Every structure is written in structure tokens, then in C-alpha cells.
């Protein structure tokens, strides 16, 4: 994988799926995603990595001229910590209820 790239162009149907036709005349084959299919025919901005000769793996895609959406990243370590805290609270409450009942 290469470094992150930011491209602007128009989404179109290509021989192998969705393609991004850039302003400079380039053509990139995008990974097929629901978001890309919804924006077909629109002018878009794409952030992602090159894959092979003309492949592009999208991290984010949005309409050109609109602000870039915030990326949502669920951090696994925070999820695990929250699960431990929730389990601790549950165990404490269950212990108190069993002593009272």
C-alpha cells in the first residue's frame, strides 16, 4: 500500500465496476461501496490508497465542494475497556441484589 492520496473527479461506470475520472484525465478503478454507488455521476472527492496500477481503495468519499466528513474510527482498546467497566458495574449490582434478596 502506498501513502494516502486525495483525488477529485467524476464517478462513472467502467468495464470492471466504478471508476473515478479525474480532472487531469486519469482513470481510477474504485472498490465497490454503497457510498460510491449512491454518488454515481456526481463530482466527488476521494481519500484513500493506490492499489496496483490504477486501483484505488477508498477510505472516504464525498461530494466535491462539500466539507470533508469526519472519519469514524472505533478504537478496539476503548471498546474492550468499556466492556470491562460495564461488566464490573453489572457484577457489583448483581452482588448487592443477591445479598439483599
Automatic annotation (TrEMBL):
It comes from the Bacteria. InterPro entries: DUF5818. The chain crosses the membrane at residues 78-97. Keywords: Membrane, Transmembrane, Transmembrane helix. The keyword Transmembrane applies. This is Uncharacterized protein. The lineage of its organism: Bacteria, Pseudomonadati, Pseudomonadota, Alphaproteobacteria, Sphingomonadales.
Amino acid at each position: 500500500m502506498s501513502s494516502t492520496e486525495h483525488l477529485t473527479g467524476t464517478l462513472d461506470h467502467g468495464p470492471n465496476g466504478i471508476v473515478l475520472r479525474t480532472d487531469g484525465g486519469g482513470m481510477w478503478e474504485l472498490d465497490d461501496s454503497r457510498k460510491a454507488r449512491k454518488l454515481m455521476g456526481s463530482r466527488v472527492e476521494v481519500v484513500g490508497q493506490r492499489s496496483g496500477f490504477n486501483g484505488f481503495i477508498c477510505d472516504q468519499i464525498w461530494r466535491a465542494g462539500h466539507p470533508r466528513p469526519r472519519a469514524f474510527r472505533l478504537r478496539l482498546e476503548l471498546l474492550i475497556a468499556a466492556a470491562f467497566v460495564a461488566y464490573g458495574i453489572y457484577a457489583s449490582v448483581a452482588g448487592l441484589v443477591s445479598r439483599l434478596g
